[in-house]
Write a structure and sequence with these properties.
Amidase signature (AS) enzymes; 3-stranded mixed beta sheet; single chain
Length: 152
């Protein structure tokens, strides 16, 4: 990394939102970069139960199209985020940290998720998990990998 240049996955939320708003960065490009990072690192870290890549890319495309048409979806317009699997997203499995729920498909979307979407957020991944959660469902091997949820 060169001095003064912040890699996309280390940018703060405000800087990311500003770059997206200014057109310096597109939601699809950012989402693809973060999904690539997850695909590259998660086999070892096992920090995610479910990655909703197609859904995220669709949301990112819609965010870019809306911006191109002069619309602003909200303060998080096009910003990809990961959410813990304690929040339901209709049609997506939600383990809530319990192996017995590994096949529980949400039928509704939680209010907090609907509000994030209304603010323009791109839900890049679902079920970002911390160490205790991953240990509970038997997915995490690398110690301390829970930091990944902060870095992406």
């Amino acid at each position: 990394m060169t001095a003064g240049v912040v890699m996309l996955h280390y940018q703060g939320l405000a800087e990311t939102a500003d770059r997206l708003a200014s057109g310096d960065l597109r939601a699809v490009v950012l989402t693809e970069a973060l999904l690539d990072r997850i695909a590259r690192l998660d086999p070892q870290l096992q920090a995610f139960v479910t990655v909703t890549a197609d859904r995220a890319l669709d949301m990112a495309r819609r965010a870019d199209e809306a911006r191109a048409n002069g619309m602003r979806l909200g303060p998080m317009h096009g910003v990809p985020i990961a959410v813990k699997d304690l929040f339901d997203i209709a049609g997506v499995a939600n383990t809530a940290g319990m192996p017995i729920r590994s096949r529980a498909i949400a039928t509704r979307t939680a209010t907090v998720i609907r509000r994030l979407e209304a603010a323009g957020a791109v839900l890049e991944v679902f079920a970002a998990q911390g160490f205790d959660h991953a240990k509970a469902i038997g997915r995490m091997q690398a110690r301390g990998a829970h930091c990944l949820t902060v870095e992406i």
